[in-house]
Design goal:
The chain is α+β, with helices and mostly antiparallel strands. The chain has 13 helices and 12 strands. Strand 10 and strand 11 form a beta hairpin. Helix 3 packs across helix 5 and helix 5 crosses helix 9. The chain binds 6-diazenyl-5-OXO-L-norleucine.
């Protein structure tokens, strides 16, 4: 498969969508990112990276980080985690308060905000320095040792994170948070503010395409069962309230973020990351979704 040629073709096709979506503005630091950026990186299991466009420019990974905090939490507490958070798609906005009230403080899944906040709580309880641990995990997985938090984005999130604070207080009031609300929010705002490029994210995700074994690190990072479950979670909960549409159009386990990034894997073949800041109505990258759809159509391969 000539992925180099395919990426060039699909970038041209995907760029036609730029100008038709909206950059996330509810976090002021994100609103300043140029809307016409487009990058993509695809890493095959032998470690070869194919790139196009702004693939080496770092962006705010936002909710993509939820895949990696979940991996860390599962490594710490295993299946105990599922007593505090569910595994079903939410069918609601990612920061919905209503659903959390109906469901007595047990978030639907770890990829909506309430679930991610519970994961932060687990990491705070289990790790002496969770912020450093997460940053170092991303550095090792990607092989880029200068990856860091964008403190301006983290501050911007904190200044505007009223709904996340409400979610945290609600979780605490329902006995589903052990640590202080401020500490949980600080870790959450920082994980969202990790700055990484498409190339770095594709490398960091490669083990999910290879049954948990990283060909780059030559190390088992997750068991086969954990990898299967994480990929299932991405397929069913990874793209907000558009998971059905994503499965239908693209057919790959994927996780998106409001910074315009999307990671996806084709197990046994590759990990891919695309970045284009303009979002569609459900909060997923518009050109990014188009690029992934084109990728699975022209290669004729998806998980289905
Ligand atoms: O919690 C927020 O508002 C954002 N930092 C969430 C990031 C995101 O990509 C959407 N998440 N589910």
């Amino acid at each position: 498969m000539d992925f180099g040629k395919i990426l060039n073709e699909l970038a041209a096709h995907a760029r036609e969508h730029i100008g038709k979506g909206k950059v996330a503005t509810y976090i002021p630091a994100l609103a300043r990112v140029p809307a016409d950026k487009f990058g993509m990186a695809l890493c095959t299991l032998d470690g070869t990276i194919h790139r196009v466009g702004d693939s080496d420019e770092r962006f705010s990974i936002q909710s993509i980080s939820k895949v990696f905090t979940l991996s860390l939490a599962i490594g710490q507490v295993g299946d105990e985690l599922w007593r505090r958070v569910g595994r079903e798609p939410s069918g609601n906005r990612f920061n919905s308060l209503v659903q959390l009230e109906y469901e007595h403080g047990i978030p639907r899944n770890p990829f909506i905000n309430a679930g991610a906040l519970v994961i932060c709580d687990v990491l705070l309880s289990q790790l002496p320095k969770p912020k450093e641990a997460l940053r170092d995990y991303m550095r090792v997985l990607s092989g880029s040792f200068d990856i860091d938090y964008d403190e301006e984005v983290a501050r911007s999130e904190a200044e505007t994170g009223f709904i996340n604070r409400a979610l945290c207080n609600f979780l605490k009031g329902n006995g589903n948070l052990t640590n202080e609300v401020d500490a949980v929010l600080d870790l959450y705002f920082h994980q969202c503010a990790l700055a990484m490029s498409c190339t770095e994210l594709a490398r960091a995700t490669l083990h999910l395409a290879n049954r948990g074994f990283s060909p780059l690190l030559q190390e088992t990072l997750l068991t086969e069962a954990q990898t299967k479950r994480l990929n299932a979670m991405m397929l069913t909960c990874g793209t907000y309230d558009a998971v059905g549409e994503f499965a239908y159009r693209i057919g790959l386990p994927a996780k998106s973020g409001v910074g315009g990034g999307i990671i996806a894997v084709l197990p046994g073949e590759y990990a891919v990351t695309v970045w284009s800041p303009e979002l569609d109505r459900s909060g997923n990258s518009l050109a990014g979704g188009a690029a992934l759809e084109y990728l699975t159509l022209v290669t004729g391969k998806s998980i289905f």
